[in-house]
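We were asked to recover a plausible sequence for a given structure. The inputs and outputs are reproduced exactly as logged, with field labels preserved.

PROBLEM: sequence recovery
POSITIONS: 200
GIVEN STRUCTURE:
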């Protein structure tokens, strides 16, 4: 009992000041990219683009109407940019980043490359198209620093922004997690279909 209760796994790192240091991670398990991300309200910033205002630090995953420690919160409809810098082990293998569904559309960049999109991101309701889908993307090979840029727009849903973490890990681990979520979705749809048939 002493061995069991005396042992605790080391805490996974979290982002501080817009940077998360994973240089000592073996990636034996997935790592959630939680912590302090840079946040730019009503700005769709491209990778490397300078902002006209200073960034805010928000506790990611972050929905805009959630009150920050500063007491700020934003309306449901609008758009924003999140940014994070990841430091990886030198010479690390290609990893994958799992993206959850967001409210309601996004563009996701790794360094300068547009790596994933969901729906259409715009600055007005007419220019924005919502879409919900989980995705995963591969990181570049041979780099020890990643700059993530996540643009999100919402003009439809009561919820907004993002309320689930991005996760980084090996291809096998991310694939296994994706299959688990797909199985849960299929099970839920199957139960709903059976319930509908029963009531009909």
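RECOVERED SEQUENCE:
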């Amino acid at each position: 009992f002493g061995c069991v209760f005396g042992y605790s796994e080391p805490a996974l790192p979290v982002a501080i000041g817009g940077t998360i240091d994973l240089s000592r991670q073996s990636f034996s398990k997935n790592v959630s990219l939680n912590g302090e991300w840079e946040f730019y309200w009503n700005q769709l910033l491209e990778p490397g683009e300078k902002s006209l205002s200073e960034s805010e630090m928000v506790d990611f995953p972050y929905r805009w109407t959630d009150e920050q420690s500063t007491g700020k919160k934003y309306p449901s409809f609008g758009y924003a940019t999140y940014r994070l810098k990841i430091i990886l082990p030198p010479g690390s293998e290609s990893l994958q980043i799992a993206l959850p569904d967001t409210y309601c559309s996004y563009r996701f960049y790794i360094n300068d490359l547009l790596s994933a999109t969901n729906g259409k991101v715009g600055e007005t309701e007419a220019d924005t198209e919502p879409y919900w889908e989980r995705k995963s993307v591969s990181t570049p090979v041979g780099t020890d620093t990643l700059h993530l840029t996540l643009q999100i727009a919402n003009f439809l849903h009561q919820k907004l922004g993002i309320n689930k973490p991005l996760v980084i890990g090996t291809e096998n681990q991310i694939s296994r997690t994706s299959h688990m979520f797909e199985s849960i979705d299929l099970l839920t749809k199957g139960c709903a279909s059976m319930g509908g048939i029963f009531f009909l």
